[in-house]
């Protein structure tokens, strides 16, 4: 894989669950190509190669959390006293309600997104996790989940349930399973996607990740230099910087990738020297913790169907 391959993958895998609208169930090679400077046919061929090689494991459908009355997501870092405690947390993460995403890093650190109706509710859930597994807890900021204002009916929920772990399922097969026409299936799905009610993302097969390193730099910055620091990072790292955000005052999170283990440390050292940066913490990604099937989201969808 080269830089362009990884950038394509990042565009279809690392989707912000606060839900900006996306317009297609299937990957849009034209849109991705325009963003990263490749032709539509080239993007399509590269995606197909990643699918055939098994780097892309499958495509997952995720309904907007606002459909379950969850309007906020808070990102936490949890630091374990030892690796045994971290493993216990990761094994249990699938059973803990409101955990939206979990990322395991080398060493004692795990990042977890927790959803809720109010900040106090989310903090309480995070406190319970910290106590249960003897973890240090750090909140990195809260973001709102956009409410698409979409009125769901039983067929919409059935479509989501069918697509949860097979979001590229052929429309004809989907329609046959639900006893509707392919045209109706596509129409309903497009309405949900256009509104931001439904999000589709690729899931990586970490066993096929040889030679590719994802990592994150957590930078403490002088608040009046934040935008300057962000621009400098973009200029310095180009396409290898696939996401950058400032979830709270004085904090910048830079998500990056490289092709050898030396790159993350070199990037962190260089970034520490940028004017306005107080310090830079380096986190090397070990694994995106894949949700087990029939987790709390699946249960919530089933509850809507039973209502």
Which terms summarize this structure?
Alpha-Beta Plaits, 307 residues, 3 domains, 11 helices, globular, alpha+beta, single chain, eight-stranded antiparallel sheet
Explain how this protein is built.
The protein is of the alpha+beta class. It has 3 domains: 3-65 and 149-207, Arc Repressor Mutant, subunit A (Orthogonal Bundle); 72-144, 2-Layer Sandwich (Alpha-Beta Plaits); 211-288, ACT-like. Chain A, domain 2 (Alpha-Beta Plaits, 2-Layer Sandwich). Helix content is 40%, strand content 27%. The chain has 11 helices and 10 strands. Strands 5-2-4-3-10-7-9-8 form an 8-stranded antiparallel sheet. A two-stranded antiparallel sheet has the order 1-6. β8 and β9 form a beta hairpin. α7 crosses α8. It starts with a helix and ends with a helix.
Short description:
With 307 residues, this protein is an alpha+beta fold. Helix content is 40%, strand content 27%.
Count the E strands.
10
Indicate the CATH class of the largest domain.
Answer: Mainly Alpha
| Uncertain regions spanning at least 5 consecutive residues | 19-23
The geometry reads as globular
Strand content: 25-35%
Rg, rounded, reads 20 Å
Report the CATH topology name of the largest domain: Arc Repressor Mutant, subunit A
Distance between the termini: 47 Å
- Biggest β-sheet strands, sense, barrel: 8 strands, antiparallel
- Mean pLDDT rating: 91
Fraction of residues in helices? 40-55%
Write down the domain tally: 3
Structural category: alpha+beta
Strand order of the largest sheet: 5-2-4-3-10-7-9-8
Q: H/E series, N to C? A: HHHEEHEEHEHHHEEHEEHEH
Q: How large is the count of helical segments? A: 11
CATH architecture label name of the largest domain:
Orthogonal Bundle
> What name goes with the CATH superfamily of the largest domain?
Winged helix-like DNA-binding domain superfamily/Winged helix DNA-binding domain
């Amino acid at each position: 894989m080269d830089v362009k391959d990884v950038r394509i993958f990042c565009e279809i895998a690392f989707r912000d669950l606060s839900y900006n609208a996306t317009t297609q169930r299937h990957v849009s090679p034209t849109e991705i190509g325009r963003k990263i400077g490749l032709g539509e046919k080239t993007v399509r061929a590269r995606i197909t190669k990643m699918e055939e090689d098994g780097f892309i494991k499958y495509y997952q459908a995720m309904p907007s959390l606002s459909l379950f009355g969850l309007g906020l997501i808070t990102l936490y870092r949890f630091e374990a006293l030892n690796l045994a405690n971290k493993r216990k947390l990761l094994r249990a993460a699938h059973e803990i309600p409101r955990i939206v995403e979990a990322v395991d890093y080398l060493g004692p650190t795990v990042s977890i997104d927790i959803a809720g109706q109010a900040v106090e509710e989310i903090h309480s859930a995070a406190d319970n996790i910290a106590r249960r597994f003897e973890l240090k807890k750090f909140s990195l900021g809260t973001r709102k989940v956009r409410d698409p204002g979409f009125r769901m009916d039983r067929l919409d929920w059935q479509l989501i349930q069918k697509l949860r772990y097979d979001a590229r399922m052929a429309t004809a097969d989907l329609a046959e399973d639900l006893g509707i026409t392919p045209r109706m299936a596509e129409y309903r799905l497009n309405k949900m996607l256009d509104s931001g009610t439904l999000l589709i993302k690729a899931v990586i097969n970490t066993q096929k990740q040889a030679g590719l390193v994802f990592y994150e730099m957590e930078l403490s910055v002088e608040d009046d230099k934040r935008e300057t620091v962000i621009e400098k990072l973009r200029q310095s790292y180009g396409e290898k910087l696939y996401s950058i955000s400032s979830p709270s005052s004085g904090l910048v999170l830079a998500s990056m990738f490289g092709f050898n283990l030396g790159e993350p440390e070199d990037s962190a050292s260089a970034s520490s020297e940028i004017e306005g940066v107080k310090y830079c913490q380096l986190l090397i990604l070990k694994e995106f913790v894949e949700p087990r099937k029939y987790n709390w989201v699946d249960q919530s969808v089933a509850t809507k169907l039973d209502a």
